[in-house]
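User: Could you go from structure to sequence for me? I need the amino acid at each position, not a summary. Structure tokens:
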């Protein structure tokens, strides 16, 4: 891992985007890294666009500002690609992980991503519906992010999903989220 990795998440209120950023931070923290996870809200309502951020480093983090030059961009709701510039400020070698049933090449064209950037897609909403019974794509997106970045192993992620979700949800919901994260890890596609 580079000295510091910055991730910007784009989603809509109610999709679990902020929770995903926090669970990723917890997984990296328990792996011995220094982390930050924080949201940036517009109007606080279900369906409103929002951003969440992660900073993950092997050294103490002293920055406390939004992520302006992300190396990883997670797009939890692909309709945001048409509404805002999700690629804004992304590095020349940025990795995009987009919740979409479309092929990565089609999303690459939509993003106008240069060759140095990598584009991955995962049908996180479909996976969530099959595993959880609700369109909450955060767990499959977490699995996909962990696979493409190598930040934490699948086993480590699943343990943190169990811990994070175990505080609030029934065993059925926890098991569904763990299966959704596993499938996100296994089914992410690169273009």
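Assistant: Here is the amino acid at each position, in order:
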């Amino acid at each position: 891992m580079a000295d510091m990795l910055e991730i910007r998440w784009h989603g809509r209120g109610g999709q679990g985007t902020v929770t995903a950023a926090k669970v990723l931070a917890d997984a990296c923290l328990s792996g011995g890294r220094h982390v930050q996870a924080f949201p940036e809200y517009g109007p606080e309502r279900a369906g409103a666009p929002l951003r969440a951020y992660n900073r993950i480093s092997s050294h103490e983090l002293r920055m406390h500002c939004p992520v302006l030059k992300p190396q990883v961009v997670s797009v939890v709701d692909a309709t945001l690609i048409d509404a805002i510039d999700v690629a804004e400020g992304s590095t020349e070698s940025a990795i995009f992980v987009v919740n979409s049933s479309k092929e990565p090449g089609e999303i690459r064209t939509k993003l106008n991503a240069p060759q140095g950037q990598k584009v991955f897609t995962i049908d996180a909403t479909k996976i969530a519906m099959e595993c959880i019974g609700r369109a909450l794509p955060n767990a499959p997106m977490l699995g996909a992010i962990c696979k493409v970045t190598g930040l934490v192993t699948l086993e480590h992620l699943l343990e943190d999903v169990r811990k994070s979700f175990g505080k609030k949800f029934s065993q059925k919901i926890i098991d569904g989220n763990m299966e959704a994260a596993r499938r996100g890890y296994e089914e992410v596609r690169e273009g």
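One structural detail worth keeping in mind: Residues 171-187 form the longest helix (17 residues).
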